[in-house]
Protein: ABC transporter substrate-binding protein
Amino acid sequence: MGKWIGRSMLVAIAMVAMAGGAQAQKSTLDAVKDRGKLRCSAHNGSFPAFFEVDGTGRWQGFDIDFCKAVATAILGAPDKVEYVPLSWAQRFPSLQSGDIDVLFKQTAMTFSRDTKLGLQFSVPYFFGGFQFMARAKSNIQAPKDLEGATVCTAAGTSIEPMLVDFMAAHKVKFQLVTYEKTEELQSAYFAERCDAVAGYGPSLAVTRALKVKDPSEHVLLPFALGVESQNAAIRENDKRFLNVVNWTILALIKAETLGIDSKNIDSKRAELSAKPDANLEAARLLGVKPGIGAPLGLPETWAYATIKAVGNYGEIYDRNIGSASPYKLDRGFNRLWMNGGLIYSPAFD
Structure:
């Protein structure tokens, strides 16, 4: 009897351990499907061009469109997103705790973030430089001209350590002041509590274009802190969900590479339905030929639905940041590789 009880207890313990392991291995992909909503990062304020609220109270912006893209890939519609406004400092704890499923928040992968935070990062979806903006009358031409300056930047971002390292390398002593909210940072700069502001080049250009009467009174200084890729982040050890996030980003890029956009996608799909062998990769991308759905746990038409809903990579860029936006920022690094940029998608084979 004692032996039987002992064996029964061992079996019970093993079953509990197996159940716990199965629970631990459940992918965020399954949780999103069960919930019917993707929980995605937004901003505690406005970060023009990337995440901002329009006149009707709806979120819009470059990063917001990637939240919509992932939601469409998994759930079939771009509105199946629950946006969680976060400060820069809140973004990693919120992802770690499960408050959000995915972080699209102008976030770079760094060594410490990748190895110490229990997170994993996607392929890049944007490239940008970090720069300084100062008043033109300051006549700052080189890092040494910032000696003794008060430099403001956003709290909880990779800019802080990058800025400290940059100033140390140039042997420049300065005072660093950080702010949680973009609006507070901008107010401090325009109230001249900062001699310069260090930030993301594209967002500084947007600020200069929108927030001052005469943009020529403020200049982006002719030296840069560095260049970073921006990557989505998810919790570690979730290969299934990471695959979905990665290939959603890459599908938008591949669509632009193949000349497929939200306007011509139905006609392109009709052509491929008649002659799928004319371009097998495009046929797979648009769900005419099977192959890219089942391995991800998604319908075969997930990429078709996503491109139709949010557009290809170029459409997303132009609508939010580029030629069709109020900001008119050149694509620069974010051109397709064949146009001299860094944006590239591997094959959908």
Notes: Residues 1-23 have pLDDT under 50 and may be disordered.
